[in-house]
Amino acid sequence: MTPEKEMTASPTSSRSVTETVNGSHKFVIQGYSLAKGMGVGKHIASDTFTIGGYQWAIYFYPDGKNVEDNSTYVSVFIALASDGTDVRALFELTLVDQSGKGKHKIHSHFDRSLESGPYTLKYRGSMWGYKRFFRRSALETSDYLKDDCLKINCTVGVVVSVMDSPGLHSVHVPESDIGMHFGSLLDKQEGSDVVFNVSGEKIHAHKLVLAARSPIFHSLFFDGLDDERNEIVVTDMVPKVFKAMLHFIYRDTLVEDDILVTSYLPESSVSDTLVAKLLAAADKYCLERLRLLCEAHLCREISVNSVASTLALADRYHAMELKASCLKFAAENLAAVMRSSGFEHLKDNSPSLQSELLTTIAGCEEEYKKSRSDWGQLSDGEDSSGRRIRPRTDTDTNY
């Protein structure tokens, strides 16, 4: 009698993958010389930024963190700024060489991860970094400090573990390249059927593309009597601005950032920048995404000297999110803003904006007090619940 065959199940498998979710943040410290002398253990904090599901912040101590060092060094740390327990991560801090020679000062945890493993942050307020990041006397004569400005880049890699099933395959789909193809159409002028005369310069384009992107162009070409006109004179825009607008229409992106740079301009110059003129073009041709891109760019450059003129610009061209940001910034920095000449101009020429500013001050006063209280707790060694953060031990990073 033949024995029965044994039933066997097909083998199964699984794979656990541990990797890092990486992200970076750039922190610009303008007015370094004014920050000196704020006191040992006191810091300037960056905005919080999110990487790997947690919020982080960069702390810069211009007079150092250690009393024993007697302000000989500046200190830099990366802090866990949200609730979390035993968050494991790799870190990198880079002091940017502003001479263009690329000789950055880099402290990296990534290149020694195999040797020491990721660093564990126990709870909100835990930090990784360097008490003796750079000797202060050397820093102040180096290429890292330019125009009283320091630039610090930080990278955080949060360690995560995921289960990967080999039976589930994936196909990588590249980013959309439709903008590249339409941009090529503009550059080569193939099939162009309309010419814009902008200050004497002839610029070729395509009616269908313009009409698809802008209701104003659609009305001009297809809803009125001008659809047969093949040359249009533009009198309220210079060629550089018109070309930058076409760049967006065809590619759905702004021109390169170095062309748009507005940092630290005098307040009277904000409206003369390319990004401000593009904001006006977006308003004229109802290009809502271009409007938001311009708002985002201008929002990053808000300062005490520029906020009044940027607020007036936002109000004129219906940039509501930029306007709200300007009002809040002005309310939070009111004393300094009121001393600027831009504020005087605003007071004399835009009384309605002054009224909106007063309303914003009243609305954000409590929020501002709460924010200062929360960060004050963190900087004094407590977490958001008021628990005292334990002193660092030998297992903590304490460079």
TrEMBL record:
Signal peptide: none annotated. Residues 22-156 form the MATH domain. It comes from the Eukaryota. Residues 370-399 are annotated as: Disordered. Pfam families: BACK_BPM_SPOP, BTB, MATH_2. Residues 192-258 form the BTB domain. It comes from Musa balbisiana. GO terms for biological process: cellular response to salt stress; protein ubiquitination. Belongs to the Tdpoz family. InterPro entries: BACK_BPM_SPOP, BPM1-6, BPM_C, BTB/POZ_dom, MATH/TRAF_dom, SKP1/BTB/POZ_sf, TRAF-like. Pathway: Protein modification; protein ubiquitination. This is BTB domain-containing protein. May act as a substrate-specific adapter of an E3 ubiquitin-protein ligase complex (CUL3-RBX1-BTB) which mediates the ubiquitination and subsequent proteasomal degradation of target proteins.
